[in-house]
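Limitations

Structures in this collection are predictions, not experimental determinations, and the ligand pose is part of the prediction. Treat each record accordingly. The example that follows, with copper (II) ion as the small molecule, is included so readers can see exactly what is and is not provided: the inputs are given verbatim, and the output is the predicted complex.
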Amino acid sequence: MIFRALLSAVTLAAFVAPAAAHITLEDSEAAPGERYKAVLRVGHGCSGSPTTTIRVQIPDGITAAQPMPKHGWEIEIVHAPLDPPLVDGDREITERISEIHWLGGKLPEEYYDEFVFRTRLPDTPGATLYFPVVQECEEKVHRWIEIPAEGQNADELSEPAPAVMLTN
Ligand SMILES: [Cu+2]
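Predicted complex:
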């Protein structure tokens, strides 16, 4: 009986969660200037349709990013020029990773998964960085690209971009 009650509570939680789940970063706060392991959490597909592609945009302030390989998914990296270039010792870095794509997988609506990459955060305390994500499913697409206006709460947006706030 207890087990049955527990089971129904769990079922209810699973049923309620998707509305607020969206795609979010596991750590929504991080230290400026430090390494940051970005874990994108994908809790649902597109109205029942399985997720087949995740595309994340790396914000301008981030000059270094590195995706973690993922079984069953192919990774594609998009570069953008760095202007002015960064000087690292005797090396000049002229481009940065601006997008990471995970392609060719199939994440059923009922399941949860994580898409991981690491970065070095800019040294800008107090700033909020947004990582817009396009989630493509077999049918339909979610565009988690909305950024709150000054003073607006991200909860008011229907498809908010995953964000991390740089603490002091
Ligand atoms: Cu959601």
